[in-house]
Design brief:
- The chain is elongated and about 140 Å long.
- The strands form 2 sheets. A 4-stranded antiparallel β-sheet has the order 2-3-1-4, sandwiched between helices. Strands 6-7-5-8 form a 4-stranded antiparallel β-sheet, sandwiched between helices.
- It has 31 helices and 8 strands.
- With about 900 residues, it is mainly alpha-helical.
């Protein structure tokens, strides 16, 4: 590895122009490609495609459409359905469904949203008041027409039969006609009875016998329940009319749409609600909301917010570098970090990878680490020249980088795909930043050294190589500021003096504090309520809260039911009992509605079977399903009768509370033999991802796996356990210190920052490895332990403080974000970096002192053993 690193530095030193040209092209290309990156909130970023929850959700979406985009209609339901507004609602729903009128001009013209919906067909189904009432009218008319025609045929047949019988009995023609009329009257009476039964099935009165969309009596009897109030909709239509003051249109997009198509469909839905053709009277309004809208909008908002914060962070990091360093190359580390970020994110764009909510957070971490490695390398070049930097010092930095990469590799074990992506991008970014620091960084230093000597061409041609140039450039350029150097020296002297006097006490105190941190780690609050993670004035959050305030629910949890034949009475009864049991447990009743319930019923198969008589037999169930319009039945059960859905409305709540609710729903699932039932839907996936991220045991397991991975790397590099365990001790202790400080400060974790314990390991690894390696170098040069420690902190410790201060400055700007998720992420990262930096600097001298004492004791024991061996023959003789 050392040979490869030396060749890289040598090439960059000999041909700086070519190296900078290639690096500049790669950075420019990466920056251009990065502009094409789009955020994504796809379901497969929350849980893996192989998980049971994702598989159930995927089957649900393929059969019944994606999670619903809800158009909340606020206004008097009586005005909405008993006036011309009903036609406007029907028109809006048809527009969004892509039902272009044949032979007529499309509303809004060929470039309007209705034409776009008709052309692209992104919507699988629309459930709304207009389509519901129109479908009911169509179906009732079809059944009524069929029954009238059948009754007329029966009347004619009965009349003919009665007349024939009367004729055979020798009655007069008048008596024959009277017998025919009487027989027809009996058939008419039977028809009237059947008509009444049909009216009862749809909740109609005899006054509304004419099923027409513009018949207010018919519509009123279909929609409203006078027993609950003159303007109270029927309870079983709550998914359409949550209250007398609101209605809901559910738009289920086709499964398989990519993020751009989904965002375009949502934008067109919003545009359609603004069309003048569908403007409602009496102040009624439309609001487009729902979980898919929230995720799409929040991802875009986070991206925009992060871009602005990164600009501020870069300015702050530049100011820190300007204060810490002197010379023309003081901004070089920031340039290297930016170049590495551009190349990595450009590669993501070229590969078609999209930004998840977690990978958005990679950028500040990558910038901080990229600046760090560039500073370390540049500092060694300034101190030792290119020959020294390309020797053991560069190998040391590479070892620290390798251990850091492997530490982040632990994130690949996460069950959450976006966390795995977070780790993979960081690993690639660290490698690119390190290579860029060696190549482009070296080339810049050489170029800067050559510029003032352009007139001395003979001198340059006389054989002075890149090493001499870099040595000359390093002396006046980029020296750490006196303040940082003084701080490092003072800290080094203080920790060294204390470590030399009482190393055991220092280490014991550090271990005690770390143990306290590990003990309270599980008590650190984890914020998971989406309303607490993003600004409350975000339109998508405000609209979702409005949906909950108006309807009592903000999302939908589904139970996917699968079996060979779901029309068996035992299956329908189980579904009815299950829905009633779980909704009652969480506060729902027909009289109270969804307002005070955490869980309430939504559009489901059981809505078609409300009476015990309706599930008396399988023939009865099938007959009823056959009589229901496909518009309704296809939304709750597939045509092959093998897949059905039970839908539940759920409130906005913290995700850990939501996961507890879902756990109860899972525990209550006891389907009949031959039937499989599973929870599905976006809330299920998000809750599972949050449980995986915020679990204290999983965080502990991740930390242990990270420490083990770093230990194996150090052991593989050093080939001796005596050298590997020394930097590992402060690395392990830093994880506990960080947890303790976070708990004392009351800084909460969130789904984005709950995995940053790995960052503590990564940062601590770099600091500990660099300082330990420099101490070994000074000891090999003949310095005693106190002098070696002082020299280490005066040189490498100074660079570590400088790079740490720059990285902290970059993350600190996130704490001023108006996005709570980014605020907490920035605060946690600043705490982690600061504690890791200061903790390692404070405790490492004690560990090194104890390691030296242990080595001396082993050396004395070995010499005594050798002396005993030398004397043994003489004693025997």
């Amino acid at each position: 590895m050392r040979s490869l690193l030396q060749r890289t530095v040598s090439i960059a030193g000999r041909r700086p122009g070519r190296v900078l040209l290639v690096a500049g092209l790669l950075v420019a290309l990466g920056a251009l490609l990065s502009l094409r990156l789009q955020p994504t909130a796809a379901t497969d970023t929350f849980v893996g495609r192989g998980s049971a929850a994702f598989a159930a959700t995927d089957r649900l979406h393929r059969r019944f459409g994606d999670d619903a985009v809800v158009i909340l209609v606020r206004g008097s339901v009586k005005d909405l359905v008993l006036t011309a507004d009903l036609g406007r609602l029907l028109g809006l729903e048809g527009c969004i469904a892509g039902n272009a009128p044949a032979g007529a001009e499309v509303p809004g013209g060929p470039r309007g949203p209705c034409a776009a919906f008709a052309r692209t067909k992104p919507v699988q189904v629309v459930y709304g008041p207009g389509t519901f009432i129109n479908s009911a009218v169509t179906e009732i008319q079809r059944q009524l027409t069929g029954q009238i025609q059948a009754a007329q045929r029966r009347q004619r047949a009965a009349a003919a039969a009665a007349r024939g019988l009367a004729a055979r009995q020798g009655r007069t023609p008048a008596e024959q006609r009277r017998a025919g009329r009487d027989a027809a009257g009996l058939v008419q009476a039977q028809f009237t009875r059947d008509l009444l039964q049909l009216a009862l099935r749809y909740g109609l009165s005899t006054r509304a016998a004419n099923p027409q969309l513009d018949n207010p009596d018919f519509v009123y009897n279909l929609v409203f329940d006078p027993a609950r109030g003159a303007t109270a909709p029927k309870a079983r239509f709550a998914y359409l009319f949550p209250s007398g003051r609101s209605a809901a249109i559910q738009v289920r997009l086709r499964p398989g749409l990519d993020d751009a198509q989904r965002a375009a469909a949502i934008a067109r839905i919003r545009a359609a609600t603004r069309m003048p053709q569908w403007r409602l009277s009496k102040g009624a309004t439309y609001t487009v909301t729902g979980a898919p809208v929230l995720l799409s909008d929040v991802a875009a908002d986070l991206t925009r917010s992060l871009v602005g914060l990164l600009v501020g962070g870069l300015v702050l990091m530049a100011l820190v570098l300007a204060a810490v360093f002197r010379g023309r190359a003081r901004m070089l580390p920031l340039g290297v970090a930016l170049g590495a970020a551009a190349i990595v994110f450009g590669a993501l764009s070229a590969l078609g990878v999209k930004l998840t909510l977690a990978s958005i957070a990679v950028l500040p971490v990558l910038l901080g680490l990229g600046v760090d490695y560039a500073i370390q390398y540049q500092s060694r070049v300034q101190e030792d020249g290119v020959d020294g930097a390309a020797g053991g010092a560069l190998a040391t930095i590479a070892t620290a980088g390798l251990a850091t990469v492997v530490g982040f590799g632990v994130l690949l074990l996460s069950p959450v795909p976006m966390v795995r992506g977070f780790g993979l991008i960081l690993m690639a970014g660290i490698v690119v930043a390190f290579v860029l620091a060696l190549s482009a960084g070296t080339a810049v230093l050489v170029a800067l050294a050559r510029r003032p000597r352009a007139s001395a061409g003979r001198l340059a041609a006389s054989g002075r190589g890149a090493a001499d140039l870099l040595r000359a450039a390093g002396r006046p350029a980029a020296r750490p500021a006196a303040a940082v150097g003084g701080a490092a020296n003072r800290l080094g002297r203080a920790t060294t003096a204390l470590a030399l006097r009482r190393p055991v006490a220092v280490l014991a105190a550090g271990a005690l504090l770390a143990g306290a941190g590990w003990a309270v780690d599980s008590r650190t609050a984890v914020v998971s309520d989406v309303r607490e993670l993003v600004p409350r004035d975000t339109p998508a959050v405000r609209d979702l809260q409005l949906l909950q305030d108006t309807t009592g629910v903000a999302g939908e949890v589904d139970v996917l039911v699968e079996g060979d034949d779901l029309t068996r009475p035992a299956v329908i009864r189980w579904m009815r009992d299950y829905r009633a049991r779980v909704t009652e447990r969480y506060g729902y009743s027909a009289s109270n509605g969804c307002g005070k319930a955490d869980l309430c019923p939504a559009l489901s198969l059981t809505d078609l079977f409300r009476s015990d008589a309706s599930v008396a037999s399988q023939a009865r169930i099938r007959a009823l399903l056959g009589a229901v319009p496909p518009y309704f039945s296809n939304g709750v059960i597939t045509r092959d009768r093998r897949t059905a859905v039970l839908a539940f409305g759920v409130k906005l709540m913290p995700l850990e509370r939501q996961e507890a609710l879902l756990g109860v729903m899972r525990d209550e699932l006891h389907p009949p033999a031959g039937v499989h039932a599973a929870l599905a839907g976006l809330p299920v996936l998000v809750s599972q991802a949050n449980a995986d991220l915020s679990s204290p045991w999983r965080r502990l397991g991740t930390l242990l796996a990270g420490l083990l991975a770093v230990a194996l790397v150090l052991l593989a590099v050093y080939r001796r356990w005596e050298r590997a365990w020394v930097p590992l001790v402060p690395i392990a202790l830093a994880t506990g210190w960080s947890a303790l400080v976070l708990w004392l400060l009351g800084v909460p974790l969130n789904p984005m920052s709950a995995t940053l314990g790995v960052l503590v390991i990564a940062i601590s690894t770099e600091f500990a490895v660099l300082l330990t390696a420099r101490f070994r170098e000074e000891r090999e040069r003949g310095l005693d332990v106190p002098a070696a420690l002082r020299r280490t902190y005066a040189s490498t410790g100074r660079a570590v403080l400088a790079s740490g201060a720059t990285a902290v400055a970059g993350f600190a700007v996130l704490a001023f974000s108006d996005v709570r998720m980014l605020q907490d992420f920035g605060r946690v990262t600043v705490v982690d970096l600061t504690v890791s930096l200061l903790g390692v600097l404070a405790v490492l001298p004690a560990v090194l002192t104890l390691a030296e004492r242990r080595a001396r004791r082993r050396g004395r024991s070995a010499r005594r053993a050798e002396d005993a061996g030398d004397r043994a023959p003489a004693l025997v003789g």
